[in-house]
Amino acid sequence: MHLLLIRHGQSFVNLEDWEDGYVDAGLTPLGQRQAEKLAQWLAANVQLDALYTSTMARTLEPPP
C-alpha cells in the first residue's frame, strides 16, 4: 500500500499580494493547470483505491 499526500495547486490565498485575509478561495489559472497535470500523472501512474479531500473550494473545482 502507498499513501500519497498531495497539496493543492496555487490558490489566490497563496499569492504574495493577496490582501483579503484567509478565505475559501479557488485556484489561480496556474493552480488549475497544476491540478490538471497532476490528474494526468495520477491517471497514468497510480491505481487509486480511495481518494480523500477537504471540502474547500480549491479541492472541489471542476476541471477548466
How is this structure best summarized?
The chain has helices spanning 29-45, 57-60. It is an all-alpha fold.
Structural key phrases:
64 residues; mainly alpha; 2 helices; elongated
What can you see in these coordinates?
There is one protein chain. The chain is mostly helical and 64 residues long. It contains two helices and no strands. The relative contact order is 0.23.
List the helices and strands and how they pair.
Blueprint: H1 29-45, H2 57-60
- Using only C-alpha atoms, the radius of gyration works out to 13 Å
- The proportion of residues in beta strands is under 5%
* Total strands: 0
Rough outline: elongated
